[in-house]
Write a structure and sequence with these properties.
It contains two helices and 16 strands. With about 210 residues, it is α+β, with helices and mostly antiparallel strands.
């Protein structure tokens, strides 16, 4: 039976990943059957402003600025170096796909379900969003460890539209490794994250004082 995780707990896990990992490239958290990988200080989380972009293997966590066997999704830019004509795009292999209408990726809302019932487009889709901010893009891919098609999503921060160099970052990605559908989780507000972090630090300090006593 799939374990239900509250938003508060999910937010706390995100804060813990960002805090404990420190300078680590990524922090991976598993709850129920959902795997979430949060990018912390990894410079590769910023999508390079070129046609190669960033290649990701969602199972192994491998990343690269050039194509490699087994990649699951490739966020990149095409067009020209001029922001007005450059396009932020997502590329998936023929065995995968992005939730899209035709060749336009769908910017999903928190609470959206990504599953076998979703409409996917393999290959290249335009992922420019109508507005800047945090966007969720649904994806499917074949998990090489199990041979099962998995469903997940990228959490992407687009700080400018049209995009410019350094303006698009992959904050995290999540997927269900059983092949079940996955629901997009909201990203905690900075104030919420800080309150959770402050609470955890206070609890830790209290425990240390009790131990010393």
């Amino acid at each position: 039976m799939k374990q239900q995780v509250s938003l508060g707990k999910r937010a706390m896990q995100l804060v813990l990943c960002a805090t404990v990992a420190g300078a680590a490239l990524t922090a991976q958290t598993a709850y129920a059957d959902v795997i979430t990988v949060n990018f912390t200080s990894n410079p590769l989380s910023t999508v390079p402003y070129n046609i190669d972009g960033l290649y990701l293997n969602l199972v192994t966590g491998a990343t690269g600025t050039a194509g490699f066997a087994g990649y699951d999704v490739n966020p990149y830019f095409s067009g020209s170096a001029t922001p007005a004509t450059a396009l932020f795009r997502l590329l998936t292999p023929s065995t995968g796909g992005t939730v899209a209408t035709g060749t336009v990726a769908t910017a999903l809302a928190a609470g959206s379900l990504i599953s076998s019932a979703s409409t996917f487009t393999s290959g290249v889709v335009n992922a420019n969003s109508a507005t800047s901010g945090i966007n969720f893009f649904g994806i499917r891919f074949v998990n090489e460890s199990t041979g099962i098609t998995n469903y997940g999503y990228l959490t992407v921060q687009q700080m400018a539209n049209p995009p410019v160099a350094g303006s698009v970052q992959i904050l995290s990605y999540s997927y269900d490794n059983t092949g079940a559908g996955i629901t997009v989780a909201a990203v905690p507000e900075p104030s919420t994250a800080l309150m959770l972090l402050g609470g955890m630090l206070a609890v830790g300090a209290l425990r240390r004082r009790r131990t010393q006593a």
